[in-house]
């Protein structure tokens, strides 16, 4: 079946540090890939997405590139801010009539001033 | 712009009681989902629906039931609540499986 594996957390960084959060996937066919973010006390919201190989999703300074050869979709940001502190989820949807979103376990990011 | 609305936000149930978590969306989305979120475990899919009248089980359906009589509403029913059902529940909707999913604010349920 489809699955998403995220690196273990939590992650603590100082403000302006470089961020990488790893995500790899297993899926049949050609899935769409997503990063969702959950701020404290809130529901999840879409951060970025990519729908085909070599696509780069970007939003709010975050980027992720769909790498089919390595089945990866790593999230990066060049300079994190305190306001980026949240839980980040990688997810995929493999398409098809009855497809559904499959999430990774999520990783908590804390950014120190 | 209401989006996805869940009620209630918080609830405490006694073991063996039943309740319904309400979810409604005003975006005319076909797909709707119920997830539960437990600390360190990410989101687990309970049930999902690809359209009115169609529902299917996710990873962890035991102890829950759903119905989808309209496009807008996707209630989740808990029968005979157990402590293992203590969790935060999220409802979500999307136009298709490959488009953005919109989430409600969540329902924090405690079973004692």
The string of secondary-structure elements of chain A, in order, is EEEEEEEEEEEE
Compute the number of strand runs of chain B. 11
Considering residues with a beta carbon less than 8 A from a beta carbon on another chain, report the largest interface and each chain's count: A-B, 25 and 25 residues
The unreliable regions of chain B are none
For the termini of chain B, the CA-CA separation is: 36 Å
Put simply, the count of helices of chain A is: 0
Estimate percent helicity of chain A.
Answer: under 10%
Nearest-integer average pLDDT of chain A: 92
- State the helical fraction of chain B: under 10%
Give the averaged pLDDT of chain B, no decimals: 94
Rg of chain B from C-alpha positions? Answer: 13 Å
Strand content of chain B: over 45%
Note down, in words, how this protein is organized.
The complex is a heterodimer of chains A (113) and B (112). Chain A is an all-beta fold. Helices cover 0% and strands 50% of the residues of chain A. Chain A has no helices and 12 strands. Chain A has strands at residues 3-6, 11-14, 19-21, 23-26, 32-38, 44-50, 56-59, 62-65, 75-77, 86-93, 101-103, 107-112. In chain A, strands 2, 5, 6, 10, 11 and 12 form a 6-stranded mixed beta sheet that branches. A 4-stranded antiparallel beta sheet of chain A has the order 3-9-8-7, with no helix packed on it. Chain A has a two-stranded antiparallel sheet with strand order 1-4. In chain A, a hairpin with a 2-residue loop joins strand 7 (56-59) and strand 8. Chain B has 112 residues and is mainly β. Helices cover 0% and strands 52% of the residues of chain B. Chain B contains no helices and 11 strands. Chain B has strands spanning 4-7, 10-13, 19-25, 31-38, 42-51, 54-57, 64-66, 76-78, 87-94, 102-103, 107-111. In chain B, strands 2, 4, 5, 6, 9, 10 and 11 form a 7-stranded mixed beta sheet that branches. A 4-stranded antiparallel beta sheet of chain B has the order 1-3-8-7, with no helix packed on it. In chain B, a hairpin with a 3-residue loop joins strand 4 and strand 5 (42-51). The model of chain B has no long low-confidence stretch (mean pLDDT 94). Chains A and B meet through strand 5, strand 6 and strand 11 of A and strand 4, strand 5, strand 9 and strand 10 of B.
């Amino acid at each position: 079946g489809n699955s998403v594996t995220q690196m273990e957390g939590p992650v603590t960084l100082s403000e302006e540090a470089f961020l990488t959060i790893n995500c790899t996937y297993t899926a049949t066919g050609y899935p769409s890939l997503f990063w969702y973010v959950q701020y404290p006390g809130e529901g999840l919201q879409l951060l970025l997405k990519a729908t085909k190989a070599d696509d780069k999703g970007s939003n709010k300074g975050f980027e992720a590139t769909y790498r089919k050869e390595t089945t990866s979709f790593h999230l990066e940001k060049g300079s994190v801010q305190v306001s980026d502190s949240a839980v980040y989820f990688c997810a995929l949807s493999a398409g098809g009539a009855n497809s559904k979103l499959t999430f990774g376990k999520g990783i908590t990011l804390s950014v120190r001033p | 712009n209401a989006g996805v609305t869940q009620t209630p936000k918080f609830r405490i149930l006694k073991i063996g009681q039943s309740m319904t978590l309400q979810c409604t969306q005003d975006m005319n989305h076909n797909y709707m989902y119920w997830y539960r979120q437990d600390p360190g475990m990410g989101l687990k899919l309970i049930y999902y629906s690809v359209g009115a009248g169609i529902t299917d089980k996710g990873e962890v359906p035991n102890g829950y039931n759903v119905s989808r009589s309209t496009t807008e509403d996707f209630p989740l029913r808990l029968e005979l609540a157990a402590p293992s059902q203590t969790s935060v529940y999220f409802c979500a909707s999307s136009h298709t499986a490959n488009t953005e999913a919109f989430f409600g604010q969540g329902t924090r349920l405690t079973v004692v």
